[in-house]
Amino acid sequence: MEANVKLIIAGALFGFVTGGIGFIMIKYWIFPIRHYRRLKSNICKDILSYEKTIQNNKWDPNKISQKRFKNTRKSLSDLVQSFNEKIPLWYKIKLKSRRESPSETARQMMNLINIRDPEHVQKRLQKAKAALLIK
């Protein structure tokens, strides 16, 4: 009987420790990394959308929705904040070793609304894509 109680206690302790480790990994690794990747994906879509607008010779910041620019800026600031504050250190080191730079992307894209020349916008978008390692 005592052996069964010891096995039950050991099993419960093992389950508690495993559950605690799993919770920590999900809360502090998985969710922040998934959030970062989702933000990066949204910015990739924005970049492609802006490039498509330029290719169709329709780049006019006055005609492009202010809400669209505002959403892009919000996504960029969230991405930089996520990179600087939320993702785990080991993942940040991995991104830096690949030379991925959300802050450089934000620097290139924040003022698109003020640029009238489509060629200048295209150059900035190319630099932003390179900084986020987008092909």
Question: What's the structural blueprint in terms of helices and strands?
Answer:
Blueprint: H1 2-55, H2 66-86, H3 89-97, H4 102-109, H5 118-131
Helix pairs in contact: 1-2, 1-5, 2-4, 4-5
- How much helicity do the residues have? over 70%
User: Outline, from the CA principal axes?
Assistant: elongated
List low-pLDDT spans: none
Spatial gap, N to C terminus: 64 Å
Calculate Rg over CA atoms: 22 Å
Measured by DSSP, the beta-strand proportion falls in under 5%
Tally of discrete structural domains: 1
Query: What's the total helix number?
Result: 5
Tell me the number of strands: 0
Class based on secondary structure composition and strand pairing: mainly alpha
Brief overview, please?
By secondary structure, this protein is mainly alpha-helical.
